[in-house]
Design brief:
By secondary structure, this protein is mostly helical. It contains 19 helices and four strands.
């Protein structure tokens, strides 16, 4: 991998294109969830009405926060049960040409939770431990349902800022419109584009080929293009291949790599504008977009700079230290350093979790940068839930700012009360709790899979355990692997599954509660004491609040892991 200065323009062009598309696409998302006339209504409206009849619901049926959350849990519970059944019995189910065995109960439990929660953290080898049926029928279904669930919670929370009757919408209607108007059309178009890039799309499980030296090799195939399409679009990230986007079959060229990066960034960067469309105040999107861009660009710059810097551990080796061109181990040489870095930062900061390089071999600062993106979960964060988390940070920021200047804390004409702050605080504090508690228990008790002495002696191995739990808690799915940490044991399968469940549904419940409380309030006209949020001042203030809170929550554990590696 080389640092091609000209490839920085590729990075600039991708970011610029996304920023040009995001306001338009965000406005489209807003119109979808406001049920306004859209292109394709003639075809899609009858289909959606038929789905509503099957589900026994109606667009006129509106739900409060508790009912909305119950519908979300029931639906996702059914998806989890189906996934667990399929993984546990996959050897006897269709499309298992490679002879993948049934998963153990703990691995099936971890996998089913992982895909239901949009995490897609895998404790198995795709090519040998999971059948095509499991990937196509079970896992493939969850790629859509988990993405749609995140978007429904986002829009339900946002409706709380404009409603006054205590309702947040209808989960089943929001879910259906997300599928028909957003995910299925986009995933189809992107899959076709991936095929044009050379990504396989076939129901054939594998082919045997003859290599140049006369041997034979099995090439694992399948509907890779369609799988990759919804995986990247929906912040899922779980690749068809274990090598993920580093596989030449899944990511054939630098052009496909850049396109995949844009696909990952599309919805997360558009949600601030969808929010502005729903509340009918376009200027309110820019403070959030500004915060996202400030942190994202700084993170990308640090990642590229420290990946290009000479590895200090190799400086003392004659004729090697200055010729390694940074941290080349585990990096895909088909892509330049800026292009690969943009992909990886966009993946982790967007809670996608796809990889086009080995995170375990990047520089310590690079690992710290990626960890920080999962600590914030909101710059831009996963599809829907990332912006919901950023809104919770904004609620806390406005509350604290209002108290500091003696103003009544309010946002968009709705008063921010103690109960809002409690729910926002719960959502933000549950994240470090579900990381640090199992981390401490696992390390101190020498849980199976951890070589305790190695973790204590090596900051890198310490970081690998921290990264695993952080990735699961953030519903990210990327992994920093090391030989000293075996995460496929029953302890880590069950622990990781519980962490993912709490990391997904506790914040969802908090977001719906905050939105529900706001939806019961009258909208007050702005007064002389109203804090102006559509300003650069608020953007900088929100950015600093986000950085300070995230850093303070995780500084001690970072000092023992990534920072210790740096020092």
């Amino acid at each position: 991998m080389t640092f091609a200065l000209g490839s920085l323009w590729d990075v600039v062009v991708v970011i610029a294109l996304i920023l040009a598309i995001a306001p338009w696409f965000g406005a489209y998302l807003g119109r979808v969830y406001m049920d306004r006339p859209l292109f394709g209504d003639t075809i899609l409206n009858p289909i959606e009405r038929a789905v509503y009849r099957v589900l026994g619901t109606s667009p006129r049926k509106q739900m409060r926060a508790r009912e909305y959350m119950l519908a979300l849990l029931l639906f996702n519970g059914a998806v989890f049960a189906f996934l667990f059944f399929y993984f546990f019995f996959q050897a006897g189910l269709p499309l298992d040409a490679t002879g993948a065995p049934n998963m153990s109960w703990d691995l099936a439990f971890h996998s089913a939770v992982s895909f239901t929660t949009n995490t897609d953290f895998t404790h198995f080898t795709n090519e040998s431990q999971v059948s095509m049926g499991s990937e196509l029928i079970a896992w493939g279904l969850a790629l859509f349902t988990s993405t749609a669930s995140g978007l429904t919670v986002f829009v339900a929370m946002v409706r709380g800022f404009v409603r006054r009757d205590g309702t947040l919408g209808n989960f089943y209607v929001d879910f259906t419109r997300t599928m028909t108007r957003v995910l299925i059309p986009l995933a189809t178009v992107f899959a076709i584009i991936f095929v044009l890039f050379g990504v396989p799309e076939t129901l054939r499980n594998y082919i045997d080929i003859t290599t140049l030296n006369g041997g034979t090799q099995t090439i694992y195939l399948g509907p890779v293009a369609s799988f990759q399409s919804i995986s990247l679009l929906g912040s899922n990230g779980g690749g068809w291949y274990s090598a993920n986007a580093a596989s030449p079959l899944a990511n054939p060229s630098a052009a496909s790599n850049l396109f995949m990066t844009g696909v990952m960034m599309l919805i997360p960067f558009s949600t601030p504008f969808a929010f502005a469309q729903v509340i009918r105040k376009r200027q309110e999107a820019w403070p959030f977009m500004g915060t996202i861009l400030i942190i994202f660009v700084i993170a990308l710059g640090l990642f590229i700079a420290y990946q290009a810097a000479t590895n200090p551990a190799l400086v003392s080796i004659p004729n090697l230290g200055l010729s390694t061109n940074g941290y080349p181990i585990g990096e895909e040489t088909r892509f330049s350093l800026p292009e690969a870095s943009l992909f990886q930062v966009a993946s982790v900061y967007g809670n996608v979790g796809a990889n086009n390089l080995s995170i375990g071999s990047v520089s310590p600062v690079g690992q710290l940068v990626l960890l920080f993106g999962m600590f914030t979960q909101s710059t831009p964060g996963g599809v829907g839930c990332g912006f919901g988390t950023l809104l919770l940070f904004a609620v806390l920021a406005i509350f604290v700012g209002g108290l500091m200047v003696g103003r009544t804390p309010e946002y968009l004409g709705k008063k921010i009360q103690t109960v809002h702050v409690k729910w926002a605080g719960l959502a933000l504090l549950i994240h470090p709790a579900i990381i640090l508690i199992p981390f401490s228990v696992g390390v101190l008790l020498g849980a199976p899979g951890i070589a305790g002495a190695t973790v204590g002696a090596s900051a890198h191995n310490f970081t690998s355990v921290l990264y695993e739990l952080t990735s699961e808690a953030a519903n990210n799915g990327s992994a920093l692997s090391t030989a000293s940490f075996n995460d496929t044991t029953p302890f880590w399968n069950v622990t990781g599954a519980l962490v993912m469940l709490a990391g997904r549904f506790v914040p969802f419940w908090a977001m719906l509660q905050v939105g529900g409380i706001f939806s019961e309030q009258e909208i007050l006209p702005p007064g002389p004491g109203t804090l102006k949020t559509a300003s650069w001042t608020f953007t900088i203030y929100l950015t600093m609040i986000l950085i300070i809170i995230s850093a303070l929550l995780f500084l001690p554990v970072m000092a023992l892991g990534p920072l210790a590696q740096i020092l």
